[in-house]
Design goal:
The protein has 573 residues and is α/β, with parallel strands linked by helices. The chain has 29 helices and 12 strands.
Length: 573
């Protein structure tokens, strides 16, 4: 069957932002796909467009990129019942984000992670950028995982047309978004030393403004640009003679792609690549020699500064590899994958768009269907009509049984009515969403007897201990508020409260309640210890309030990662 000769509609729900991922994963490949299959209608629709649900129903192939929109799940199921396929794409390790990333706070929510997993498992396949993500997500889904590499978006000229000989100054550089900050800062001591030794060295940086300050590089040898568009980034690369691509060995970085090497190499810039998983394939296929320590990186920089013929020769070798093997319009794996997912014949869906590539922002949605239902239910509850709210929520759960928020809201409505079936509904919810701890916490809040609470707390604490640190932090407020209230009403919960404090030692309100409980039990020595800790914390807060209020966890964690990498690299050296 020649699918490229028929007018199929490919709908990609895309994040249409002026960032690298948007271009490399969605916009450029979609344009290339439309050129390779000129009878196809290839649409990138903004993922927040109101039209996304209606259009998703009627597309011949639906592609969902980096989505946590659980309201798409009923549509995916209806599509499957009609023989229509859906693909998901995830291009980052959302389990282990770099602290400096703009989405780190969002990804630290286990609830977001669970939404990603539910969508992944509902689709017919998952697309990723490289082997790290394939290995990681292979443990989360039984769906086929397809590696679609990043490529340069357009054909390249001959190497001699773009090669620039180093002048009296030698330009080495790095560019990256906020998520790469720790990678770059890990090598700044080496760069400072090199700059002092080689007055002709010029360090080019493109990134967020604080980088220029915290790199502590000599301003006379530093050329800094603020992070900008992709065109500005490629323009920045064309100023370099040698590129830097440091990569700290983290879970997130192991799941990155090799795109920095492709971007630099396509502009005639030789990147110095670390021996990390994302670069191992391109290193093997081009014969490049990676560096393993900061000492080796330093030696490579000096070698290419002093051996211009080798620099040109090795830059050409990488450029020619990219020109022949990593240019998007020449690659057909996406076309082949999409073709294999199409129905035998296109749907007659009445699209008011001709074949070709279309990029559409659509009508920005103010909320999702679930949010609107939750708002309606909330209004009914405020009007003292929990029964009607429960009926509304039950219908919503029937329509989308994979939306945990709806199930939890229905349980709350049953509780308001005093309906004992809430326990059965909660047990069903726990079975359907085994990783969602909110069902445990809801049951804890409404446990009647101390014996029942102890049993439930044993289970909840055991589960919290198994969670990664960021997930435990996410649940801190709810967990400590539940035990705080229970301890206030029932001193028998003291042992549980202290076990919760062991998990959350900075839960000061809970510590205050525990101290009072101990005093009432005449355990003055232990109460004294807690009151002393509270006083110390209060004085610390008063003395450092301004600094702590203006310093983020992300910033401190970035420096922890940076300095850890430096120490490990120096030990290896």
């Amino acid at each position: 069957m020649n699918t490229t000769a028929q007018t199929y509609t490919i709908l990609q729900l895309a994040f249409l932002k002026d960032i690298g991922d948007s271009y490399h994963r969605l916009r450029w490949p979609a344009r290339q796909l439309a050129a390779q299959a000129p009878t196809w209608r290839v649409i990138n629709l903004a993922s927040n467009a109101e039209e996304r649900y209606a259009w998703a129903e009627k597309a011949d192939l639906l592609v969902i990129a980096q989505s946590r929109d659980v309201d798409l799940l009923p549509i995916i199921e209806r599509r499957r019942a009609r023989g229509l396929k859906t693909l998901a794409e995830y291009n980052d390790n959302f389990y282990d984000p770099p602290p400096s990333s703009s989405v780190a706070d969002v990804w630290h929510s286990p609830l977001i992670r669970q939404c990603y997993e539910r969508i992944m498992n509902a689709c017919d396949g998952v697309m990723v950028t490289g082997p790290g993500l394939k290995e990681l997500l292979g443990g989360k889904t039984d769906r086929p995982i397809h590696i679609l590499e990043n490529h340069h978006p357009s054909p390249l000229p001959d190497f001699d047309e773009i090669w620039r000989e180093p002048s009296e100054t030698f330009a080495i550089g790095w560019g990256g978004s906020s998520g790469h900050i720790a990678d770059f800062l890990s090598i700044t001591p080496l760069l400072r030393d090199l700059a002092r030794e080689r007055p002709g060295l010029r360090l080019h940086i493109m990134g967020d403004a604080p980088l220029a300050h915290f790199a502590h590089l000599d301003p006379a040898q530093l050329v800094f640009r603020n992070w900008g568009t992709m065109d500005e980034y490629f323009d920045f690369l064309r100023c370099l003679n040698l590129g830097l691509a440091p990569l700290i060995d983290t879970g997130f970085n192991r799941c990155r792609s090799d795109i920095k090497a492709i971007e630099m190499g396509s502009q005639g810039v030789l990147p110095l690549l670390p021996d990390r998983l994302p670069y191992q394939k391109i290193i093997a296929e081009t014969g490049m020699t990676p560096y393993r320590t900061h000492r080796e990186l330093r030696e490579k920089i000096l070698y290419y500064m002093d051996n211009r013929d080798a620099l040109r020769r090795h830059a050409r070798r990488l450029f020619d590899y990219i020109r022949h093997h990593r240019v998007g319009p020449q690659r057909r794996e996406r076309l082949q994958l999409y073709s294999s997912m199409l129905p035998p014949a296109p749907l007659e869906a009445g699209w008011d768009l001709p074949p070709g590539y279309h990029e559409i922002l659509g009508t920005p949605a103010r909320s999702t269907p679930t949010v609107r239902i939750m708002q309606q239910a909330g209004d009914l509850i405020n009007q003292r009509q929990p029964g009607r709210a429960q009926v509304l929520l039950h219908e919503a759960v029937e329509n989308n049984p994979q939306h945990a928020d709806l199930v939890l809201a229905e349980i709350e409505a049953l509780l308001m009515q005093g309906d004992p079936s809430w326990r059965h509904t909660l047990q069903l919810g726990r079975q359907r969403f085994p990783e969602d701890l909110r069902f445990d916490f809801l049951e804890l809040r409404h446990a009647d007897a101390s014996a029942e609470r102890f049993t439930l707390w044993e289970r909840a604490l055991a589960r919290l201990h198994r969670e990664p640190p960021y997930a435990r932090r996410f649940h801190a407020t709810e967990v400590t508020s539940i035990i705080h209230e229970q301890l206030r009403l029932d001193p028998a919960m003291l042992d549980v409260a202290e076990r919760v404090l062991a998990l959350y030692p900075a839960a000061w309100a809970l510590k205050h309640e525990v101290a009072h409980c101990l005093e009432r039990r005449h355990e003055d020595a232990r109460a004294l210890q807690y009151f002393g800790e509270l006083l110390t914390a209060k004085k610390c807060h008063e003395q450092n309030h301004e600094f702590l209020s203006n310093t983020t966890d992300a910033w401190l964690n970035t420096w922890l990662n940076t300095l850890t990498e430096r120490l490990e690299a120096n030990q290896t050296s």
